[in-house]
Amino acid sequence: MEIEDLDEISRLFKLLGHPKRLQLLYLLIQHSMSVSEISKALNWEQSAVSHQLQLLRKYGLVKQIRHGKTIIYHLQDPKVMTLIADVVSHAEKIVKSS
């Protein structure tokens, strides 16, 4: 594995390590949603949701599909869903054992 590969992996973990992005991704694991639906579910401003989605799209984690005038976002890679679900499950075990 090259140093550049490790740098890219590090950037991905940094992206996933941000609490708001992790919340957003965890929400999208459950079902696809529009910006306004995400905004309501997480109680965030729509501009904050859009900003986080833009970053996640840049790394290919989130994909958008247009349905008429509405854009629906969903996780693009099922492996990301598995990774996040595993991390959340592990974190819950740590919290319960504390």
Automatic annotation (TrEMBL):
UniProtKB keywords: DNA-binding, Transcription, Transcription regulation
Ranges of residues in domain HTH arsR-type: 1-95
Q: Which domain of life is it from?
A: Bacteria
Asked if Manganese is a keyword of the record, the answer is no
The reply on keyword Transcription regulation is yes
Which PROSITE patterns does this UniProt record tie to the protein?
HTH_ARSR_2 (PS50987)
Note the InterPro entries from the entry.
ArsR-like_HTH, HTH_ArsR_DNA-bd_dom, Metal_resp_trans_reg, WH-like_DNA-bd_sf, WH_DNA-bd_sf
Residue runs in coiled coils:
none
- Report the GO molecular function annotations: DNA binding; DNA-binding transcription factor activity
Show the NCBIfam families listed in the entry.
HTH_metalloreg
Q: What is this protein called?
A: ArsR family transcriptional regulator
The source organism is Limosilactobacillus mucosae DSM 13345
